[in-house]
Specification:
Elements: H1 3-36, H2 38-52, E1 56-57, E2 67-68, E3 71-77, E4 82-90, H3 100-105, E5 114-116, E6 125-132, E7 135-147, E8 150-156, E9 158-163, E10 170-171, H4 175-185, E11 192-201, E12 209-220, E13 225-229, E14 235-239
Parallel strand pairs: 1-11
Antiparallel strand pairs: 2-10, 3-9, 3-12, 4-8, 5-6, 6-7, 7-8, 11-12, 12-13, 13-14
């Protein structure tokens, strides 16, 4: 028996086996890396889509994907009635000493539950959204009106909030996914996106009680607002800027 030849065959067999095992290990590592890099690919894909469509982002795309559920709200105060401040407020002072909520709450105590919506505000008109668990309730607002640099009038809507506890919490789709859907189906080339934010929104009906769903709100530079349902991806409302 040729032991030298047998030894060579045995060594070559071990080498082939090691190469095969190494290749399988490399494939496993690559597959794992691909799973962990999904967000990286999504980001690259979105960036490429934005570039190809000449769409510009003013703010960063949110990365959060929390678990939320629908809300039922009941209006305590309906919008539309303008009232006057006893002591008008300097519009350019609201960002200097305190937050806007703190300043306004000196005359409207419930203002502490509202946060300024910078995307919809201007030098003469400030929009503040009522908040629920640090998320805005769109269209439930404290609106402030300024003339000659003084905020003297306001209108306010206010709701009581209740979660639908019989409905399970659901994880929202990513803002990237919602943005991709808008680019593919709604946004025109050359658009500028001012902000993307997760909040609650529903169809407006003439009733004291409404159902609100979690939605990604996209505000464009021209004032257009897209509300993308954060669970099923439907674009429920498209509003033109006022």
């Amino acid at each position: 028996m040729d032991w030298g030849r047998s030894k060579t065959i045995l060594i070559l067999s071990f080498l082939c086996l090691n190469l095969l095992l190494g290749y399988q290990l490399l494939q496993i590592q690559n597959d794992s890396g691909n799973l962990s890099n999904d967000s990286v690919r999504d980001t690259y894909s979105i960036e490429k889509m934005l570039e190809l469509n000449n769409i510009r982002m003013v703010s960063a795309i949110p990365t959060e994907t929390p678990k939320v559920r629908d809300l039922i709200v009941k209006y305590e105060m309906l919008p539309g009635i303008r009232q006057y401040f006893e002591k008008p407020i300097k519009a350019n002072a609201v960002f200097e000493r305190k937050t806007l909520s703190d300043i306004i709450s000196e005359q409207i105590p419930s203002a502490k539950y509202y946060v300024l919506d910078k995307s919809l505000s201007s030098n003469s008109y400030y929009v503040m959204n009522q908040m629920y668990k640090d998320r805005p309730i769109y269209n439930v607002q404290l609106d402030l009106y300024a003339i000659d640099g003084m905020i003297g009038e306001y209108s306010q809507s206010k709701v009581q909030v209740k979660e639908i506890e019989t409905k399970p919490l659901e994880q929202v789709m990513s803002a990237r996914r919602a943005l991709q859907f808008l680019i593919e189906n709604y946004l025109m080339k050359g658009m500028v996106i001012q902000s993307i934010e997760l909040g609650y929104h529903g169809q407006e009906f003439q009733t004291d009680t409404q159902l609100l769903a979690p939605k990604w709100r996209f505000v464009l530079k021209d004032g257009t607002r897209y509300y993308v349902h954060a669970i099923n991806g439907e674009v429920d409302v498209v509003e033109k800027g006022q």
